[in-house]
């Protein structure tokens, strides 16, 4: 039911409070009006506590002013009123009959187990105050999917084509052979995008599907709060009743034994019921430290795919495609400039492109390389800050299992000299330092030595496959 | 000597993009794009960068108001407000609102706990498609953080520079332009008087303009220098 009383109460509150008080504490509240109760949902414990301590009386007065004859009770709660939601989720009921409401949220409740600012808390079904949102969630749960992340908006290339193809397969055949589906790789490479794309396609094909996306951190927080409020059975019932569970960044489960235990059972239940599980992580599952072996093992039961940072050609292609989507023309030389300077990930490229487009629009200039340089000035400075000569030396030393002191030393044995040359060449490739500056930083060497190292490494990356791989890997580690 | 206004609260008018006077056409265009992006809710992160007094807080609050007009939740957190008992955990859960505005974010950046919390908030908001607007005085590249993950997150932030309008002549011109929008003419001597005697903060001057407009309508008088002096003296006494 949509509220009519709350917008009127807001007008009273707004006139009596400062802008800051109103926007910080009152605006974030979501109102749900039911029989003689106005439920106000705070998104976090912090806001809940503040409103409960300092503003609840004013809210009640405002409500009374608006409805003096029939003043409803004001109930203040945290989250998406999800504890109530979860209790209503009965997996044996047909989906269409399930309560309409957002996903479970036990997050950040106050220490006090009384979750309401008033005495009682009845679990009653209410629609969300925004009818549009409710209509997007016919399955009765909030799926948390970002509708912008679809297969159509995903740019495929060599670095992610296997992951994209597999994701299509999972969407076509959920709960089938690729279960669980595990995507790993660095941040900003499209893992979350692919995960949402699968979820969105599942929802498109079956709007009743009970699909939920959430971050692992949220799963842990929900579980902790469920335990604290003795709602763990509801929590279990909710997650084990899904058709597809999409959990992002499972590396955050590391060292959280109880969450891992619960997730293990949820995972097993879903897999046994042929329900799809999709997971992402920043590294290969077996390399996630602090994760139980049995979980690591199960993660490998389905299909594990990697997404790699885009190579130069793909970065250029992404820029050209995105520029087209954003509605402006990008010449090849500008695309080459951005792709050369920003190697990290797709998100950075998109951000850079938006900046360049906005800058051109605001200054009413054509997009040229010099405009791009100006528009990206602080971003490139940020990148410079992240890639230092010391960082390069340390990363290369670690990679070749030698010490930084060896790289800086006068020793000229092959196992030291080659990594040193590699580090010098990377320094030239990734930083704006001059040859003499690089020489100085590498034990006071002459700039001609640096120049020689750069030429040597360039030559070897073209002829020596292993060294070429080393170059790519090191660049990826340092820039990501 | 500046005239002291009796109660800043009393002068408060509804903050909105309409009541913000852009110092130049570039900023105006940038803000128009900013509004469009907020309306589309594409989960972008913006950084309003400018000196104190440029109107960043006004813009953040206007953004919150815009969201409420669309029936979407928003939260505004003034991180420099000494009354807020701020700990890094406060950011947890805020991503559930459609727009998260963090004012004076430099107050907390560089503190490891806050950096961690900010990284996660930006990530969670992005994955939910919710927008974040940060504000601060310094350039993004000058942020005192040594967390590579935060620097990484900042790479996709869209900065909008909000310069301050402090040249008396430009201030008067801006006031005249805004008065015209409000439906009355502001003579140049009145404009000069306000800027000289009252304030060089454009947003504060806008509040005064609003008072003058209301007084002019109520008393059915033109906005002349004697009238303005009378109104402001009464306000100061009130």
Instruction: Give the percentage of residues in beta strands of chain A.
Output: 5-15%
Order of helices and strands of chain B: HHEHEEHEHEHHHH
Report how far apart the termini of chain A are: 47 Å
For the biggest sheet of chain A, the summary is: 5 strands, parallel
Strand residue percentage of chain B: 5-15%
Largest interface: A-B, 57 and 50 residues
Percent helix of chain B, as a range, is 40-55%
Could you tell me the CATH topology label of the largest domain in chain B.
Rossmann fold
* Secondary-structure-derived class of chain A: alpha/beta
* Total number of helices of chain B: 9
Name the poorly predicted regions of chain A: 81-136
Q: Provide the low-confidence segments of chain B as ranges.
A: 1-12
Overall pLDDT score of chain A: 82
Mean pLDDT of chain B: 82
Instruction: Name the CATH class of the largest domain in chain B.
Output: Alpha Beta
Spatial shape of chain B: elongated
Explain what the structure shows.
The complex is a heterodimer of chains A (480) and B (238). Chain A has 480 residues and is of the alpha/beta class. Chain A is 54% helix and 9% strand. In chain A, the strands form two sheets. Chain A has a five-stranded parallel beta sheet with strand order 5-6-7-4-8, sandwiched between helices. In chain A, strands 1-2-3 form a three-stranded mixed beta sheet, covered by helices on one side. In chain A, helix 12 (312-326) crosses helix 13 (332-341) and helix 17 packs antiparallel against helix 19. The relative contact order of chain A is 0.07. Chain B is α/β, with parallel strands linked by helices and 238 residues long. Chain B folds into two domains: 2-161, P-loop containing nucleotide triphosphate hydrolases (Rossmann fold), CATH 3.40.50.300; 168-234, Helicase, Ruva Protein, domain 3. Chain B has nine helices and five strands; from the N terminus they run H-H-E-H-E-E-H-E-H-E-H-H-H-H. Chain B has a five-stranded parallel beta sheet, with helices on both faces. In chain B, helix 4 links the parallel strand 3 (99-103) and strand 4. The longest helix of chain B has 18 residues, at 202-219. The interface between A and B is large, with 57 and 50 residues.
């Amino acid at each position: 039911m949509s509220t009519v009383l709350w917008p009127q109460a807001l007008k009273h509150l707004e006139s009596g409070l400062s802008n800051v008080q109103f926007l910080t504490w009152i605006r974030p509240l979501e109102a749900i009006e039911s029989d003689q109760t106005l439920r106000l949902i705070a998104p976090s414990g912090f806001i809940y506590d503040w409103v409960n301590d300092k503003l609840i009386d004013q809210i009640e007065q405002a409500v009374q002013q608006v409805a003096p004859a029939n003043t409803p009770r004001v109930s203040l709660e945290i989250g998406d009123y999800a504890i109530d939601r979860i209790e209503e989720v009965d997996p044996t009921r047909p989906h269409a009959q399930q309560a309409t409401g957002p996903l479970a949220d036990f997050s950040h409740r106050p220490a006090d187990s009384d979750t309401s600012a008033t005495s009682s808390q009845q679990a009653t079904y209410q629609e969300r105050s925004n009818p549009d949102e409710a209509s997007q969630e016919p399955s009765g749960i909030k799926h948390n999917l970002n509708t912008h992340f679809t297969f159509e908006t995903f740019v495929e290339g060599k670095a992610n084509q296997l992951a994209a193809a597999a994701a299509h397969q999972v969407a076509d055949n959920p709960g089938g052979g690729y279960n669980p589906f595990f995507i790993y790789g660095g941040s900003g490479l499209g893992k979350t995008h692919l995960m949402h794309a699968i979820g969105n396609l599942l929802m498109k094909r079956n709007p009743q599907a009970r699909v939920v996306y959430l971050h692992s951190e949220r799963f842990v927080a929900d579980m902790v709060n469920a335990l604290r409020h003795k709602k763990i059975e509801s929590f279990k019932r909710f997650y084990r009743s899904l058709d597809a569970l999409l959990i992002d960044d499972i590396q955050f489960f590391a060292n959280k034994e109880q969450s891992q235990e619960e997730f293990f059972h949820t995972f097993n239940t879903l897999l046994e019921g042929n329900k799809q599980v999709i997971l992402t992580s920043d590294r290969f599952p077996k390399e996630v430290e602090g994760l139980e072996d049995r979980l690591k093992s199960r993660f490998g039961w389905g299909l594990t795919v990697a997404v790699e940072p885009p190579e130069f050609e793909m970065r250029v292609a992404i820029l050209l495609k995105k520029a087209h989507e954003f509605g402006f023309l990008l010449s090849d030389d500008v695309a080459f400039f951005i792709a050369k300077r920003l190697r990290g990930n797709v998100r950075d490229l998109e951000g850079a492109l938006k900046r360049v487009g906005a800058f051109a629009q605001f200054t009413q200039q054509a997009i040229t390389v010099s405009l791009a340089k100006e528009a990206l000035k602080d971003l490139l400075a940020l990148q410079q800050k992240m890639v230092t000569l010391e960082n390069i030396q340390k990363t290369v030393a670690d990679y070749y299992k030698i010490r930084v002191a060896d790289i800086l030393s006068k020793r000229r044995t092959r196992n030291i000299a080659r990594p040193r040359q590699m580090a010098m060449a990377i320094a030239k490739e990734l930083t704006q330092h001059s040859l003499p500056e690089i020489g100085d930083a590498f034990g006071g060497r002459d700039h001609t030595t640096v120049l020689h190292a750069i030429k040597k490494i360039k030559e070897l990356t073209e002829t020596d496959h292993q060294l070429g791989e080393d170059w790519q890997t090191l660049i990826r580690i340092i820039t990501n | 000597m500046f005239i002291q206004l009796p109660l800043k609260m009393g002068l408060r008018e509804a903050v909105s993009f309409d009541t913000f006077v852009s110092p130049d056409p570039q900023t105006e265009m940038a803000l128009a794009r900013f509004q469009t992006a907020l309306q589309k809710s594409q989960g972008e992160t913006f950084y309003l960068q400018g000196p104190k007094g440029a109107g960043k807080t006004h813009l953040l609050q206007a953004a919150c108001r815009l969201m409420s007009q669309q029936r979407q939740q928003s939260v505004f957190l003034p991180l420099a407000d000494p009354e807020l008992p701020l700990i890094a955990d406060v950011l947890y859960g805020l991503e559930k609102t459609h727009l998260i505005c963090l004012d004076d974010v430099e107050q907390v950046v560089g503190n490891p706990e806050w950096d961690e919390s900010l990284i996660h908030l930006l990530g969670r908001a992005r994955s939910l498609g919710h927008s974040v607007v940060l504000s601060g005085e310094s350039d993004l590249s000058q942020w005192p953080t040594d967390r590579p993950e935060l620097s990484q997150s900042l790479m996709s932030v869209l900065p909008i520079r909000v310069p301050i309008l402090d040249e008396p002549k430009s201030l008067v011109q801006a006031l005249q332009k805004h008065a015209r929008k409000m439906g009355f003419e502001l003579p140049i001597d009145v404009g000069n008087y306000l800027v000289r005697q009252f304030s060089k903060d454009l947003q504060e001057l806008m509040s005064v303009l609003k008072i003058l407009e209301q007084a002019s309508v109520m008393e059915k008088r033109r906005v002349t220098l004697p009238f303005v002096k009378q109104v402001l003296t009464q306000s100061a006494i009130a």
